[in-house]
Design a protein that fits this description.
Elements: E1 7-8, E2 14-15, E3 17-18, E4 21-22, H1 23-28, H2 38-55, H3 60-74, E5 101-106, E6 115-120, H4 137-146, H5 156-164, E7 184-190, E8 195-201, H6 214-222, H7 229-240, E9 248-255, E10 264-270, H8 275-282, H9 292-306, E11 338-344, E12 352-357, H10 359-362, H11 366-379, H12 386-397, E13 409-416, E14 422-428, H13 434-443
Antiparallel strand pairs: 1-2, 3-4, 5-6, 5-14, 6-7, 7-8, 8-9, 9-10, 10-11, 11-12, 12-13, 13-14
Length: 470
């Protein structure tokens, strides 16, 4: 059955979905793949990104740009192709099932459009072996490949932190027992006029697996600028504040652009889960002022997506509603902690702070998260793209069996804006290996994953009937 959904974009051209696939994906599929492994990845990932960009109302040209970039540069770097009878030799720390990519949907303002991004772990053929024990070199190869063809791509900071963290010499696990030795992620943001590349460093303290400390990151950052006031404020907070002292440093991210325009993003986590502790981190213990409206909106969002009572206590711990599954790719929980990053700009007096709500762990279901988020956005006049987001969730879930247990939405990130609103981003795990892992668990032995297209019991489409809330 052919379904045609015409929507006018800015240039007047019609965006369409035909035979349940966006036309941009069908057009891009006509071109040959760079490697044998890229074909199966394209069949899995291509329709997801095509749907996401279509539903975010990207122009046809931008949809094709995103898909052709994915096909030519990214998919050949994702490692072994998914197959019915084999698992990847490298389990990425990016997701709980080891999938080496994650999508994100940056939500629109009242008069703007969403932005689609994705993050990957590039996986080389020697990853985990003596030649590349922490899987560093494939990311370096990809960046060097992109440098001549992407305007504005600047590897100055990448090279600085690679040397500062001694990434070439990393030899052991990043403090994760029995875990993969992931050392880097890379993300892509397709803007109107360029592609912005972000890199994420997961170093160890000594190159042999000890967890990084705040000193690990601070020492590397201080050599970039003599004005590190925002960084020093972060260090004061984590050393002296009762909530700040619970923060554990995890990784550092940078934009690969001209250094004068780039920022440091220091990611941290905390086992403290009360809303009181969240607000302490978001305001740096009260030093970040004039965010009362943002706090009110964050409290509302937090309650809606986690299904809390309207008058929930700020001092109570937030309860886990979907327990950790140790039978997935990693024996440790990637989503236990409340996660934040400090956005540190050279010369700034204070950092900006972003909070990641681990909805995969603290909300009951994908359906509940989507319903709560949709209600929040509609109540605040930002619901124009909710239906498109729900359609995208349906597309990503198509290959998972009913009651599979796979949770697509992992985090919702929130940051205070100057106008009192929240900058919001939803993160999504396609669950490339989830079905394989659960099939093996059920059978008690290695059992390949089956391509599945069952209608799942979480009917995202039903959420479009929003009872008149606009």
């Amino acid at each position: 059955m052919t379904e045609v959904l015409p929507t006018e974009n800015g240039s007047g051209a019609a965006l369409r979905i035909v035979n349940n696939q966006p036309q941009a994906w069908q057009a891009a599929s006509r071109y040959p793949f760079e490697t044998e492994e890229a074909g199966p990845w394209w069949q899995l990932v291509g329709p997801h990104l095509a749907t996401l960009t279509h539903e975010a109302k990207y122009s046809v040209e931008r949809q094709l740009e995103v898909l052709m970039f994915l096909q030519s540069h990214v998919l050949p770097r994702l490692g072994d192709a998914p197959s019915p009878d084999a698992f990847a030799h490298w389990k990425s720390l990016l997701t709980n099932d080891g999938s080496p990519l994650e999508y994100s949907w940056k939500w629109n303002s009242k008069d703007g459009n969403p932005e689609i991004r994705y993050c990957i772990e590039a996986i080389g053929s020697q990853a985990g072996k003596s030649e590349d024990p922490v899987n560093y070199f494939e990311t370096e190869k990809l960046l060097l490949q992109l440098a001549p063809v992407l305007p504005g791509l600047d590897l100055t900071w990448f090279e600085h932190f690679t040397k500062a963290f001694d990434m070439h010499r990393e030899t052991n696990t990043n403090g994760k027992p029995e875990g993969p030795r992931t050392s880097m992620f890379i993300a892509f943001e397709h803007l109107d006029d360029r592609v912005v590349v972000k890199t994420y460093f997961l170093p160890s303290e000594d190159g042999r697996g000890s967890p990084p400390t705040f000193a690990t990151f601070a020492n590397a950052a201080r050599t970039l600028s003599s004005n590190t006031k925002a960084l020093e404020e972060v260090l004061k907070y984590v050393s002296s504040d009762p909530h700040g002292s619970t923060l554990i440093p995890d990784m550092l991210a940078i934009d690969c652009i001209e250094p004068s325009k780039s920022r440091l993003k220091l990611y941290v986590g905390s086992t403290h889960t009360s809303f009181e502790s969240i607000i302490s981190v978001m305001t740096l213990g009260g030093k970040i002022k004039n965010v009362e409206n943002g706090i009110d909106q964050l409290r509302e969002l937090f309650g809606l997506v986690l299904g809390l009572k309207k008058d929930f206590s700020w001092s109570d711990d937030t309860l886990v509603q979907d327990p950790f599954d140790a039978n997935l790719a990693h024996p440790f929980d990637l989503y236990r902690n409340m996660t934040y990053y400090f956005d540190i700009a050279p010369g700034s007096a204070l950092p900006d702070v972003k909070f990641y709500i681990p909805v995969i762990r603290y909300a009951k279901s994908d359906n509940d998260v989507a319903a709560g988020l949709a209600r929040f956005l509609r109540l605040h006049g930002r619901g124009q793209f909710v239906d498109g987001f729900l359609t995208s969730l349906e597309k990503i879930r198509e290959r998972h069996a009913a009651h599979s247990g796979h949770r697509i939405q992992t985090f919702i990130a929130a940051a205070f804006q100057k106008d009192g609103s929240l900058a919001l981003t939803s993160y999504m795990n396609p669950g490339i290996y989830h079905s394989q892992i659960k099939a093996r668990e059920r059978a008690g032995h290695m059992s390949g994953y089956t391509r599945i297209s069952h209608r799942n019991p979480y009917h995202f489409a039903q959420l479009r009937r929003h009872n008149g809330v606009n």
